[in-house]
Amino acid sequence: MVEDNENLSSVYGAENSDATRSAYEGWAEGYDAENLGNGYRVPGIGTAMIARHVTRGTGPIYDAACGTGIIGGMLDLLGYESIFGSDLSPAMLNFAGSPKPYTRVYEHDLGEPLPEEDNKFAAVTCFGSLGPGHAPPKCMDEFVRITKPGGHVIFNTRAETYSEQELKQKVDDLMNTGAWTLVDQSPIFRSYYFIEPDVTSQVYVFQVA
Predict the structure, then answer these.
(1) How many CB atoms lie within 10 A of CB 116?
(2) SS3 call for 136
(3) Which residues form the Methyltransferase type domain (predicted)?
(4) pLDDT score, position 138
(5) Looking at the predicted structure, is the pLDDT value of residue 17 above 60?
(6) How much is the pTM?
(7) What are phi and psi of 63, to 5 degrees?
(8) What are the C-alpha distances in Å from 77 to residues 81, 104, 106?
(9) Given a cut of 90, is residue 31 above it in pLDDT?
(10) What SS3 class is residue 149?
(11) Where are the domains of the chain?
């Protein structure tokens, strides 16, 4: 495995949604093989946190920025049904739509309002897509809006930069206003086993009021 990953550099260097879309469009075909081959740990740990807190059969799950559908595939194996997904990149969605088991997938920029009803989902998940150049902090308001009271919003952040991001302020604001409560968080862990030793993640679980 290589230590300097060109695709990751393009993604981390994206400064807006257009640059992010372009980076993922060019990476889509090899995304699963390259990421999983490099020991990408976020999907597995994220899915474990979903299984810990979201009871099967309590409602649909919305997988925001679902990419190629790795999370959806894992949830299906665990017996979850009615999984919705969206992503900024049409090329990534081509892989998420089939054979990955989503009820529906569609292109969407998380900087815009979600085309979903209030209080619809038992959980909203978002992995690998929060931070500079990716989904803006205001998407958290939409995640809360479409989650049922008592449901969960589960996401990861890059741990080494989280305290410096506007995202943390939004997360704290939602706690301070009583919109959600932090109920669980993972330890900080390396995002990849085999590359990028300085890139770390942490998964958070919030329960919506």
Answers:
(1) 18
(2) coil
(3) 63-155
(4) 95
(5) yes
(6) 0.90
(7) -100, 90
(8) 10, 17, 22
(9) no
(10) strand
(11) 6-208
- Strand locations in 104-199 (E): 104-107, 121-126, 147-158, 180-185, 189-190
Residue reference for tokens 């060109």 = 6
Residue 37 three-state SS: helix
Confidence of residue 164 (pLDDT cuts 50, 70, 90): confident
User: Tokens standing for 56?
Assistant: 């099967």
96-143 residue pLDDT tens: 766 668 999 999 999 999 999 999 999 999 999 997 667 899 999 999
Region 6-208: CATH code? 3.40.50.150
DSSP structural state of residue 128: S
Contact 202, 185 (CB under 8 A): yes
Is pLDDT at 28 greater than 90 in this prediction? no
| Tokens linked to 117 | 């009803």
- Tokens 């009871």 correspond to 55
- Rounded Cα distance, 19 and 13, in Å: 9
The tally of CA atoms less than 13 A away on the side-chain side of residue 56 is 9
Dig out the tokens for 195 from the structure.
Answer: 């590359």
Structure token digits, residue 72? 């959806």
Question: Residue 102 corresponds to which tokens in the numbers above?
Answer: 């989503």
| Residue whose structure tokens are 């099967």 | 56
- Distances in Å between the Cα of 108 and the Cα atoms of 26, 89, 135, 191, 209 are 18, 8, 11, 25, 26
> What are the tokens at 75?
């949830």
Phi-psi region of 207 (alpha: psi -120 to 50; beta: other; left: phi over 0): beta
The total number of residues shown for the chain amounts to 209
